[in-house]
Amino acid sequence: MRLAQLKAQTEQILRGLHIDPAVIAHRTLPYFEDVSEHLLVETETDADTGRIYRLTAPASAAWHTMKQHAAADGVAIYLVSAYRSLSYQADLIRTKQHAGIAPEVFFTSLAPPGCSEHHTGCAVDINTPGCDEVTGVFGETAAFTWLQNNAARFGFVMSFPQGNPWGFIYEPWHWCWHSNS
Ligand SMILES: [Zn+2]
User: Fold this and answer.
1) What sequence ranges are listed for the domain D-alanyl-D-alanine carboxypeptidase-like core (predicted)?
2) Is the model's pLDDT at 1 over the cut of 80?
């Protein structure tokens, strides 16, 4: 899908949420095509909720390999989010709206539908035992240090470092797998 179509799709979803697309007009947000769900595989089950996290097959394989290597180094990592459909992303936005948070604020930590790496099936949110919240504090964990030193070997890149050009907050927990091709 071309960029213009992706932008139009995002604007349509925003209008459906009663959000003026102008709120993101000043942001140079990336747009991503959403993956077909039949390309996703079950990657991991949430130990607390039983929710199944899905990724594309190559991203899933890379995640499992990375997780095994982390474990061998004594570092436990697990998924707290993986593939999210456009409609699920819209649901997350509704939750923020119901909490009375303004779009200008929640769009610094939650991407508009169409601009989230999570619907590519290649992005993961990671946590580690002992870290209560998936916030900037994850950046102070041993798991984060391990990821910084090792994740690139498995194709994972931290998408939103401090001062990233897209106007997202620092997200040390959010990594995206990029094919080596
Ligand atoms: Zn994320």
Assistant:
1) 55-178
2) no
